[in-house]
Amino acid sequence: MNDNAYIALTIIVMGGVTFAIRALPFLGARWLDKHPQIKRLGAFLPLSIMVLLTGHTLLDIGRSYGGNYTAEGIAIAVVIALQWWQRKALLSIGVGTLIYLVMRNVA
Amino acid sequence: MSNTGAVGPIARSPLLLSIPVAVGYIPLGTVFGFLFVQAGGAWWLAIASSLWVYAGAAQFMMIPMLVAGLPIPTIAAATFVINLRHVFYGLSLLQSLPRHPWAKSYMVFGLTDETYSVLTTLPPNTPAATRVWVTLINHVWWVIGTAIGALIGGQAETSLAGLDFALVALFAVLAVEQWRARSSAKPLWIAIASYPVALITWPAHALLVAIALCVLSAVLLDYLSHER
């Protein structure tokens, strides 16, 4: 991740896409009214995407440490349980990462 | 502004209103800046990302995608999908935007989940200037957090093995919150079914293929349940 031109261009494009989405209701309220499926997809897809990103990065990290995914499985279970009961994002991320660090570096 | 008969705290300070957002944005911005730099990105690009993209989940998503060197149109498509929920936001704020074109554009640009939730709690007679300031100050918290994280990430001589788990944990947290807000369990099952298929058919681009499969399934399901 050291190709600055590629990263900068990605940032510019991502910013443009994000702004366009946020501006869509102001520019095309009528068009949006005629296409309710856009709204429904906006409500439907984020859960799928977040689950995919979680699974993908989890497998990726397990692969990069060449393990059997035990440490990853335990740490992610802790994160999900904490977030489910406590609903404090930073607590869940912090505790989960700490547990994973200990398992990777001490055990 | 007239004071006649005005009761109650109308003129709340924008800084005060943005404090709850700061509590979330500064640490999360720090995590983003840190992970971005640890993944090999330049510190100023981390800050540029928070200045210009300004969308939490999408910015975190861009890290593994940039590491994988995915084509820019692919990353743009993923950004589109992940930010699509923002289409909801503008509609409810249509009436309360400032007149000035630059202020108006900036507020539309800064309409993140958190800013939206603050703006919707303001009483209708809140001055437009207050709304613009809240949007701006929230943005500043996010950029400050990113700068702190990028700085720490750049100073860390040896990266501690396993610190990249923070990114996985963040996605898991967002997934749990999306699950809580779900209207059906289908998005979860579709994701779980898509990934193995993607892994088998095109392992080098499993994430991309899986996202595409999810979008296709969602469009198809939507069509089947609504068009007839």
Tally of helical segments of chain A? 5
Major beta-sheet overview of chain B:
none
Structural class per helix/strand content of chain A?
mainly alpha
- Over the alpha carbons, how many angstroms does the gyration radius of chain B reach? 20 Å
On the 0 to 100 scale, the average pLDDT of chain A is 89
Main beta-sheet strand count, sense and barrel state of chain A:
none
Determine the fraction of residues in helical runs of chain A and give it as a percent range. over 70%
Give the overall silhouette of chain A.
Answer: extended
Distance between the termini of chain B: 53 Å
**Oligomerization status of the protein chains:** heterodimer
Give the strand content of chain B: under 5%
Structural class of chain B: mainly alpha
- Portion of residues in beta strands of chain A equals under 5%
Approximate shape of chain B: globular
- How many DSSP E strands of chain B? 0
Question: If interface size is counted as residues with C-beta under 8 Å from the partner's C-beta, which chains form the largest one?
Answer: A-B, 69 and 89 residues
Q: Please compute the radius of gyration of chain A using only Cα atoms.
A: 19 Å
Q: How would you sum up this structure, described in words?
A:
The complex is a heterodimer of chains A (107) and B (228). Chain A is an all-alpha fold. In chain A, 87% of the residues lie in helices and 0% in strands. In chain A, α4 (70-86) runs antiparallel to α5 (89-105). The radius of gyration of chain A is 19 Å and the shape is extended. The two termini of chain A are 30 Å apart. In chain A, 39% of the residues are buried. With 228 residues, chain B is mainly α. Chain B has 2 domains: 14-181, no CATH class; 183-228, no CATH class. Chain B has helices at residues 14-17, 19-38, 43-52, 56-67, 72-83, 87-93, 101-109, 113-121, 128-155, 165-180, 186-201, 206-226. Chain B is globular and about 55 Å long. The N and C termini of chain B lie far apart (53 Å). At the A-B interface, α1, α3, α4 and α5 of A face α2, α3, α4, α5 and α6 of B.
